[in-house]
Amino acid sequence: MKPVAVYDVIERRQTVRLRGDDNQQNNTGVLYRPPDVRLAASGAREGALTTAPGGGIGEALDVGIGVGGFELFNSSGAAITVALGVRIPNVLWRAGQWDDAAATPYTDDTADAQDVGTADFAMNTTTANDGLVIHSRVPFNLVSFDVGTAGDASTNAARYSNAAGDGWSDVTTNLLADTFAATGERIWFFRTPPDWGRVQTNGLSGIPGGRYALNIRSTVAPAVTAAVADSLSIYRMYFIREAIADNAAYEWWPGGTEAPMIPGDALVAFFGTANDLNGVTVLVRPRV
Fold this sequence. Notes:
- This protein is mostly beta strands.
- The protein has one helix and 18 strands.
- The protein has two domains: 4-43 and 62-85 and 236-287, Sandwich (Jelly Rolls); 90-234, Jelly Rolls, CATH 2.60.120.
């Protein structure tokens, strides 16, 4: 751990679970942004992809955040999951729709996923097993959707590119899997699979090679109305603790080390249940 003097001290209450409504593609409510990324265009998107593992052009993987210690205080009235992590920069991920019956099921729609247009990113259809795909140069374990059009009740399931990168494995470690039958922020949060493989070089169902892919499908589809998101953002949560009791805290004050969270362009906290009295204290600095 660096001397305390090199850190910014963040201490605040958090009124939402993660980002809240309408904040998936802005910086409202993040805990901290490193100074050298504050001027970056928030809507910047990934360059032209290649088929090589890790494809794309010039994406920086070394901008991140160092955490010297933290406390996440639960005042929600019940035992909940809490976590601390970072937002993955837009330039490192893409997203689109999944048409399960198509010859090439994946169609890119990154522009709509990463802009602030209203209800323009389709999340599913009224046909079973259709849905969406997110693929990233780096692993992630939380997706925040800002749902503009709520879909009818459906049964959703997630799967990830398997270890060989040539098929899918089911996500079995969900920490939170919101339905898409309500508007506003809806969250899909899971433990990062230890065998999550990058898509093989020649791609998987239209997904470029070298990507960590996540497919969320409606195994039982909405009856009439499909869900549509305004935008979304993805995160890597590094500190996760389940069943933190009400009026208790998850703390990490190492004293002799620091946790690097790379890549990441903003620090965020997660509380399983929102409450105006949930609190965050963290020592933080840029890591480049």
